[in-house]
Amino acid sequence: MPALLDKITEQVLRQIDSGSGFKQEGAFNLRQNGISLCHGSTEHIKIKKKEDKPGIDVYIDGDTKGEQVHIPVVVSASGMVDIVYNDFYIADGADVTIVAGCGIHNSGCDESRHDGIHAFHVGKGANVRYEEKHYGEGEGTGARVLNPVTKIYMEEDSMFTLDTAQIKGVDSTVRETEVTMGAGAKLYVVEKLMTHDNQKAESNMAVYMKGEDSSAQIISRSVAKGSSTQVFHPRAVGEAKCHAHIQCDSIIMDEAQVRSIPEIDARHLDAAIIHEAAIGRINNEQLIKLRTFGMTEEEAEGVIVEAFLN
Amino acid sequence: MPALLDKITEQVLRQIDSGSGFKQEGAFNLRQNGISLCHGSTEHIKIKKKEDKPGIDVYIDGDTKGEQVHIPVVVSASGMVDIVYNDFYIADGADVTIVAGCGIHNSGCDESRHDGIHAFHVGKGANVRYEEKHYGEGEGTGARVLNPVTKIYMEEDSMFTLDTAQIKGVDSTVRETEVTMGAGAKLYVVEKLMTHDNQKAESNMAVYMKGEDSSAQIISRSVAKGSSTQVFHPRAVGEAKCHAHIQCDSIIMDEAQVRSIPEIDARHLDAAIIHEAAIGRINNEQLIKLRTFGMTEEEAEGVIVEAFLN
User: Fold this and answer.
1) Which residue ranges make up each domain of chain A?
2) Mind listing the pLDDT tens digit for each residue in B73-115?
3) Minimal Cα distance from B226: which residue of A?
4) Across the interface, do B263 and A265 touch by the CB < 8 Å criterion?
5) Which is it for strands B35-40 and A257-260: parallel, antiparallel or unpaired?
6) Contact at 8 Å (CB) between A151 and A178?
7) Which of B254, B267, B270 should be substituted to probe chain A, the one whose Cβ sees the most A Cβ atoms within 10 Å?
8) Cβ–Cβ of B263/A260 closer than 8 Å?
């Protein structure tokens, strides 16, 4: 029998677990205010609660083909600090989509924080898609803080797609991502981030291309509104014959500030690494064009920002 | 009567003062092994020796139109540490070319080092072209070290072109460049750097666009051979309506390593900053094409490297 969810949890889940939405079916684990409210395993995907610390171990066997794992986190208690360690063991040849995400509803005056520390052990030839949405809401004055740490270990010929988005409402975030790549491994990262008001966001990413013919494509798009600040520090290290392309584009609005500090580090003759970054304001011509359709300036900006982030 | 120069000094001058070559004419100052060997002023450009520390003050008046100042430095004594402070006062409206450069001939076993600390005070509407070549030679085992510090203060509507090249033979260099730009100021930087053997090069550059409509274009090209290492950290900070474009391209050969850490920092809604960087090996197709002309691999590489750096 499925667990009964309160209104706030359901509302937050609609934001962070998009697509078909969160259901208590298949492989899943719903963490709410620091405890696992409900979870389920399947033939190929086993979810086990950790014994020594908060979090789960997720075992995905090699016969997994196209299955999804949903592991949303909801924090609705003001003043809560929730630290969770999730480890994913993806067997050789598995093909899986992991849908994570964290939403904080803070209606109090104390800071609510969630730190998700995730490690992915990706077997040979496995194909993993990892989606992660971060979101904050609530009428309280307490800050909504998310500090995710993501470590990805990729074996030969594996593929990992990291699709991460901070939608809105997160007052402070420091993201740490580290990827180690074996021969022939392929990494795709799409990072989207929107900050507003006095929010602060920092994203540090290090990609170590250690194996021959590994390749990485990193796309980061961000919009900074209000007096928010963002700092990006993606780092691509080529230690073998490899290929990487990093692209960071940001739109600044109002009084916002964006710093982008990409680092490309070639330690091998056949490491080919390219980086592009641009920061600028909204395209004025686009704005004018949309306003001729009768949109207000705000509406037009909204359309452009949404198009830019999608 | 011109000062008599020794063979080594003449030979080094041919490398670092290119174009028409160094002559003891017009406005000039030749510094050799820590002392000013000879110098001259003109109607519009006065060179004065500093009283309180090593170095010169160069006063360029507003009627200077297209004149050149040559201030080469030669260090040929092994084991010497030569620190020099040169200040340039460029009056409103002046148009001047400053040709600097330092060559170290080290035939001993002790490290020879030259640190040129240069400050440019560029008046309104002035146009300055600053050329600087760094070079090392000599059969000695002692290191040839160059640590230039360049500070540029640009007033309204001034223009500054910084053309800097490290040709070869410099074992270790740490370059620090800082530019502060007033309204309408325009900065052009071309940095070329070649390292070989066990050489190390680091270049840190910060450009502060403080005035409205200031703009900066920075092009950095480097070739790293042998087991040399290079680190680039250009930084463009937009504090007003401004425009900047940074482009860093590097070729790695052999066992060399290159790190490029550009930083773009937009602190104003109308700061538009673009950065591009690429590190890779020599274009193989080009190499093959040149070899069909009968060139050896080395010769073909030489041609490509030279074309890339020019």
Assistant:
1) 7-309
2) 999 999 999 999 999 999 999 999 999 999 999 999 999 999 9
3) A269
4) no
5) unpaired
6) yes
7) B267
8) yes
